[in-house]
Amino acid sequence: MLAVSIHLAAAIRGYLAFYMPTNRVIDWLRSPRGLKWAIPVAIVAAPAYLFSMSVCSTVVERGGPGYLNLLVLLFAWNALKFASVVLLAPLRGLRLAIAHRARRAVDHQRWRGDGAVYQPRWLPAVVGGSAVDRERLPGRVRFHGDRDGDR
């Protein structure tokens, strides 16, 4: 029963992520390409949704149709999503910058220019490769701590 509910929740999330426009915008703002636009877009969108929410709730209070309460909930939820983007965008940017610097440091360490490729033993696990990737590197491969006759 738990597996069925997990699969159902994943299917609903996939449907909503693909067809609902705010989910598509949020996914784009969380991507590395959309990260620079995350804060400006979210700063504009969150108050706009809050204003729309207050307008709908005012209409409902003055005798408007009750189904506008669903719009109030939808606008509140979207405002919270965009507010979370404002709060988390700097952390995502920092994480991407740290990962980029680490990747550049590893690349600089691997290629020293003397024809040999220096690669730490932990690199395949960190970068996502395997021991097979060691064989694909061009030239002679030396691992830190290895002596010339070890491999």
From TrEMBL:
Keywords: Membrane, Transmembrane, Transmembrane helix. The chain crosses the membrane at residues 38-60, 66-91. It comes from the Bacteria. This is Sulfate permease. It comes from Nocardioides taihuensis.
